[in-house]
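Journal club prep — side note

Before the paper discussion, L.F. wants everyone to see what a predicted structure for a comparable chain looks like in token form. Sequence:
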Amino acid sequence: MSLCSSTGELFKRSHGRIMSPVFSIEAESRFNAMNLESEGYRNLAIVYFDNAFSLAHELAFRGALVKAKALTYKFDKVDPEAVRDIATRLKKIPPDAIYVPDLTPFMLSFSRQLRNLGLDSVPIFSIHVVQTEALLNAEGHSADGIIYSHPDIGPESADTYYAARAARFLEDAVAKCKNSVS
């Protein structure tokens, strides 16, 4: 069992040997794209550190957009100057909202850079795994207001939801193993 978000393709290729209580990267990004569009956002920015995880998020997010347009801003060096440059470019053409499917920009004080440039009214959306103590330590009060996604879990807290889902997966696996042991 993987407790990490991954692509739907990984789960498909495993033929049921790998499962996760967490939604796939594609499901979460599609959820976020549809959510931002339903809230009326049309000019979006996607900001991330260039890696396979974030690229999968970007592709799924873009693929789910119907009415909105998204510009991508990615960087390939873990350097505060890289996110400062992106924040400065965003200041010139402020988006309606920003989607950040990766923790790395926040660890480099991306939210703080936006606030310092007066872009604190632009909402930032991110994925549920970004909501960590490390983010709060890096960004402090600049992290206030970041909107984290938890697709299709209703009013339940993510911690409770994913733990219960993992327990159900394990119960099902034990039941299958018990029935196949002679």
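L.F.'s comment for the group: The first helix runs from residue 8 to 13. Keep this in mind when we get to the figures.
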